[in-house]
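cron nightly-structures :: item 1 of 1
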Amino acid sequence: MRIHLHVGVHKTATTFIQGRLRGNLAELNRAGIGYIPLWQFRHSDWGNLMKIDPAGFRIEDHLADFFPRAIPKEITGLIISDENLLGLCGAMLNNGKIYAGVRPRLAHLRRLLAGHEVTLFCAVRRYDAFLASAYCEGLRTNIRYISFEDFCGRVNWRRLNWVSLLGKFEEALAPDRCCFWRYEQFRENAERVMSALAFGHVLHDKMAETEKVAYPSFSQMAVDALESVSERLGRAVTAKLVRPIADALPKGAQYPEFDPWGPAEKQRLTRRYDQDCRLIAPEKWFLAPPGLPVRADAA
């Protein structure tokens, strides 16, 4: 059976992708394509991934999760999409490591999917934007408030490298094929990515009303306000105020987005991002970065 596994990374339009899949679930099922909506996936046995025993597991026994109305006679493939399969952003804040536990998680998932053809779908994002967004995402769910300065002091952000991280994903999962793209290219190529993820099926432009709504991005003012509260009232109080302050001061025309990098640092990070992307084998890119040839099936 063919399985398309979309693992994120975090803050690369994952909520949009999952909402579009959920909104097209009936059409996908009729085309023989199975998909478990995000929150159903996280609240099912899949949510306790590491507790599933590979010895007694067959994904064929769980097809009703992918096809809630009726299991078709002919199955085109299954889609699994959850960025938390890689880990949590809150963990990055606490331990200073980017996806520290990803190897055992993906290796365990590979054992669960043994005997099936797995394609790994994954997006990457500019280092400066990813670190800022992952920090804010982690703040929303973390029980402790951690300043961005503290976060940068813990995480070795100067050594963040998508070449190495994607290599870890591949080594652990051992997929039959990879489909990578850059978040910066997604907006103009969303339909192509969605169709590839959906086994060539064209998805309608509709989102599921019941799917998770993306959180608004943090504004610079929201982060500054949280730091000010922390200095006056302490981290325990600030942790309880992260969501209300972030929601009250969302990124927009009135409040510019959180951008902690100076021009020179941002330029260096962007240049390194472009260089690193060119080090990844061209055949693994679904959307080729500037300077690399376009893959035949992505043309």
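cron nightly-structures :: done
The first strand starts at residue 2 and ends at 6.
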